[in-house]
Amino acid sequence: MSTARRVLRTASSAFVLAACSSATPAPASDPGDPLALTPIVDRNPDPNVVEVDLEAKETQKQFGRTPVSKVWSYNGTVPGPIIEAKVGDRLIVHFRNALPESTTVHWHGIRLPAAMDGSPAMQRAVEPGGTFTYDFVLKDAGLFWFHPHMRTDVQVEKGLAGVIRVRGAEEPSADEERVLVLDDVRLKDDGTFPTYLDDTSKMMGRQGNTLLVNGTVDATITVRPGAAVRWRILNVANGRFFNLRIPGVQWRVLGTDGGHFAKPYDADHLLIAPAERYDVMFIAPGAGTVDLVGDPYDRGHDSGKDAPVVVARVRVGGAGVASPKPLPTAFAATARRPDGPVAIPLALDESTNAAGELAFTVNGAVYPNVPTVMVPRNAARILQIENKSEMDHPFHLHGFFFQVLSTNGVPTADERLVAKDTVIVPMKSTLKLATVFDEPGMWMYHCHINEHAEGGMMGEIHVE
Ligand code: C2O
Ligand code: CU
Ligand code: CU
Fold this sequence. Notes:
Strand content: 35-45%
Helix content: under 10%
Number of domains: 3
Strand order of the largest sheet: 10-9-12-17-14-15
Number of helices: 4
CATH topology of the largest domain: Immunoglobulin-like
Bound molecules: CU-O-CU linkage, copper (II) ion
């Protein structure tokens, strides 16, 4: 940690200058690496406190071949900066809203006091020109992210999303490590964003026409031949699922949102729904260029017939690694099955209202008319999520991890029990998710296709 911090410090004066001009992005940590995320400046000398300034504002960005676009950014970059910390650190964020509309900052996947969660259920909106200080302890290792929780479909699409990497005691060692933020935006030829909520984007969530890896169009990711590569991948898209494959490469899937699998497994596809994270390793092939492919995946309404896309190119080059770090085969088991929980049934569905508009519902109601679920503090509960609709919904719970106990009655194998905060509930199926509600307050849950959440598929759990 201390080395990383020293690097951040030296970058700080340049960063402040860049931050003054909204058109100039702050420098990346390694200027030679166009895909490096911008490290945020930690201005607190205490090694156990990360204290940062975060500003949401309008910025200009060049996406590939289109003219410059007006985006909304955290500290001038899209995606926003990366916050680096270690388990147990206190994070203090001095947030300022320089956008023309209200916003909040939600800390996706982080277990924190409800007043710091940034959901409108617990926090007054930060008005234009307003400020708010977020202050909480990072209890868990993992890759998390932050994004607005007001008009999420628009504010996230316009660029507001940043990463928090929290290092823990059990970090796998790799020859190279990267964070990859996958996204897509829908841009018109003149570089502007179209109106979001046309009927098709409302149905499936808006899928963009421009794929981004760490904010870059037509990204090239470099790896060394034979290296044991660790990628930590986050999907911040509004609606797109990424079904990733590199021809000839096996993913060693180490973990996901909030933890590692007791037994990592190998797969040739890695499916990542909006807001999910995966921690993977693989052994890089020999020198050359291969594609990181996004294969079709059927999440409903004929989406399985989509053509494959090239998400990025992987350039394998440089000095080869003769003896790569071994890929991990086991982690300490952390996931457990809580005893005797009571079930809370939540049915997800889509419907058309009297005016002929599409609505997304929980137990037949549209948020904010979905009745609040009451849970006593420290109670273990099963969320029984039944997806009655013809499409998948990535279900997300704020403030707590859950374990997927079963899918359509089939129990999850012990070695696949893992802490999740977002999970795909496939069409016409039922998942049982177990969690212990050990933090009081009002907590939101919703589909993480942002158009579905804003369209009503959202609710609140009150822990008293
Ligand atoms: Cu990342 Cu309520 O969401
Ligand atoms: Cu969240
Ligand atoms: Cu949904």
